[in-house]
Structure prediction request, 635 residues.
Amino acid sequence: MFAEYIKSALASIRNNKGRSFLTMLGIIIGISAVLTVLIIGDGMKARVNSEFDTIGATTISVSLDVTKTDKFFEKEDFLKIEEVMDNIYGISPSLDAFGTAATGRDVFDMVMNGGSEAAENAAGVTMVSGRFYNKSDVEGSNKVIVISQIGAQKLFGYEDVVGKTIELTNDNMSCEFTVIGVKKNSNQDTAYASFGEDAMLIGLMPYTSMADAFNLDINNFFTGFTIYLESEKKDAVLKSARSVVENVMGLRGENAVKLSSGLGFDQTTDSILNIITSVVAIIAAISLLVGGIGVMNIMTVSVTERTREIGIRKSLGARTSSILTQFLAEAAILTFTGGIIGIILGLTISFIICRIVDFVFVVNPLLVLGVVGISTAIGLFFGIYPAKRAAALDPIDALRTE
Amino acid sequence: MKLVEIRDVSKIYNPGENEVKALNHVSISIGKGEFVAIIGQSGSGKSTLMNMLGCLDTPTSGKYFLHGQDVSHMTDDEQSDVRNREIGFIFQGFNLIPSLTALENVELPLIYRGVGKKERERLANAALNSVGLEKRKTHRPNEMSGGQQQRVAIARAIAQAPPILLADEPTGNLDTASTKEIIRIIKRLYYEGRTVIIITHDPGIAQQAKRIITISDGMIKSDIINPDYRDEI
Prediction:
């Protein structure tokens, strides 16, 4: 029986081809607009995320106010703070030095950055081979270094350099470091390495090793460090960090500890992009709403025009539900077909746009299914009012209509 | 009990000060296989009576038993089912659905009855053949003459073999030749054993029936066996 309603709905759509198409056009435009916006939004996110090739963890910077205290963080302080603090990946000081890196092949300037093993959570660290330095490297002041792909290329001419050695020189002191890992290029790596003759490489190593190799005094040096943590834990950590540091450093009540937090790149950019995408999608969805109202409008006209037909059907034994189903099926078919065409159009448009602006064209099948569902739901929602009106017609009145 | 039993039925529109008594304590019974004409001027209440007989309307007071079942107080859907099962309508304006072919129009009551596709087509084809329209099955109403359209309507009315054929001014929109043809078909259906009720204002049409009921001002004025009835096609 249901097949008959579908057939009869299709026949009625066929009989009003032009009008049905115009009605569908509203849905087509709405659906394709929403789909295009969402797909391009996804592409934009993927593109932005690939620009920042590695996304760091959320960080909190802790520093001592040098006008209020003359204390410094020492190695034991870092270990103690890390041990006491909950909900964090780890903490790392930052020791920077400038020098040169030499291999048998070439010599380059190098920015040396020393940290603890927690620095693996920093932005721009994604290993491609080998590993990042670990806790025992830091404890043992092991002379190990992590360089980027581009650094490996410059120094050795190829990327597979785990196990090779580099001679680092700082302030006339030299020391051999073993490459234990190669990481993906961060934007900084690429930028520094692009200065031609003056190209600089970046090397990451345990701060203890760096101090040891170049005879740097790290006992009266550090006035700050970075906490790496999961973004959800930020509030909790912000609350406890100050008192932990004050306790460990014996600075209670001196108001000498400063905290500042930064979101990881991921949350900031993702949330901005999500906001942009949703705002545009909402605007696009308004056109869908307008399309739905178009369906309701045309169905209402259709019911009025076919009042007599409804009367005839009722006199022949059509129940209220039969009439309701017939008109609902008609509205649903209109919007479903419009939805399918809209999806094809939306995919085409977004594919072309993604090609032009060089975004990745990713289609989430769930999104497409969702859009089909939404378009049919619109048909049913906006079809209910006219269909109910049709079904409720009194057969005598309906038959009397010319 | 007779096939149609209307007992003391009244239908009042606009109850209150301006009330109109369209039917005023009407009682009629019609047996199986009868051929009845109900004649009356416009405003006599014959349309209301026809709606009542056709289960399109319910009485304000009184009882209507159709095929032994009390149909005086039914929900819309129950009425729809009774109409589908018991009554074949033939209207003055044919009332075919313009977007459907002759065959599809005839299939409609069978669809609402839930008859399967194959059986439905068989019954609809048989009905169209019996009114001599085997060559017009795929035509739409606007491609046929008035007489042909009315024959499609008759085929639709008899397709699922209801006990009663209810014809409301069946020849009102037709020329003389088509009128003759339609009357001939209706008479033949009567001879085949169907109960036929014709509602008309035209004495010439009423004369064709075996029993003539005259209605005026919502009341039955006369109910006679037609002395001039001729048993011929």
In short: The beta strands of chain B are 4-13, 20-30, 35-39, 61-66, 69-70, 87-90, 164-168, 195-200, 211-216, 219-225.
